[in-house]
């Protein structure tokens, strides 16, 4: 007994704190480095000129008309952010049961794409392929008499919508609707239309999340949706294997990139997807995540810059190649060493 005690060194032979002691050695062993290249900036687009509207549940986020969006796009590109994702705010009178505005070649999204590719060609432009901004009931697809979202009839409209975005010059089309078979159908139609370079980012593992509330306010689909939910097509937050099944199918059907959505509460899914498939994997840090970080920061309860960069770093560490975030502009500025 005495023997053992005297033989044991009084000191730990591994001191984990040595490498943490100074900034230089912390930098030497840092695994995950966030850069503006990691971001995609989601924006809400309005009709009109010189129009700017704050989104009440997302302080700091504004809906903008196309002319103002172009200035924002130049700024975002100059900060080093590679791409922007467009979400049109459709006026009530353009919504319908058949969502035909979704594939109007002169629709708001299509016009925004053309204007952006003309003004800031180096910035990647991604579009949302889904019908919720265009349906009177706020669902992502066409409904039958019972209110059930019909899969195959919806896919036909999504295909027209995606092709109209590609015709307008979209670099990436991103189906966010969660219908079955839509990636294959969109890919086939894009090829047939000669759009062989258009990338597809599939919202592959998209959960039926309550964190989307502020987004639905921002695009104006919340009121239409009313008490409705999306449980018959978006995934159950309790499931993990189902996400791998979805991602596998979308890659087989021709997706170039896959997405997990929301972000922070779903990082276990991100890690599994990245490990299993090794495909370009993106994460959407959604509106509710933004709202939480913003609200706590505005109350002085959290240090905004520190928590936002920590959350984004964690998403990347979990396996994300890129992050859709409403903080893209601010985070890029912070990373570039600019104040504010
Ligand atoms: C709809 C769509 C949603 C989001 C992106 N596309 C909301 C929904 O599915 O109801 C959510 C994004 C966010 O919350 O930031 N197709």
TrEMBL record:
GO biological process: protoporphyrinogen IX biosynthetic process
UniProt xrefs under InterPro entries: ALAD, ALAD_AS, Aldolase_TIM
Alphabetical keyword list: Heme biosynthesis, Lyase, Magnesium, Metal-binding, Porphyrin biosynthesis
SUPFAM superfamilies reported for this sequence: Aldolase
The keyword Magnesium appears for this protein: yes
Xref: CDD domains: ALAD_PBGS_aspartate_rich
Pfam families: ALAD
Binding residues for Mg(2+): 246
Reactions catalysed, as given in the entry: 2 5-aminolevulinate = porphobilinogen + 2 H2O + H(+)
Catalytic residues identified in the record: 206 (schiff-base intermediate with substrate), 261 (schiff-base intermediate with substrate)
Coiled coil: none
Assigned EC number: 4.2.1.24
GO molecular function, one term: zinc ion binding
Pathway given in the UniProt record: Porphyrin-containing compound metabolism; protoporphyrin-IX biosynthesis; coproporphyrinogen-III from 5-aminolevulinate: step 1/4
Domain of life: Bacteria
Enzyme type, top EC level: lyase
UniProt GO cellular component terms: cytosol
Stated family: Belongs to the ALAD family.
Subunit record text: Homooctamer.
Protein name stated in the entry: Delta-aminolevulinic acid dehydratase
Species of origin: Thiohalocapsa marina
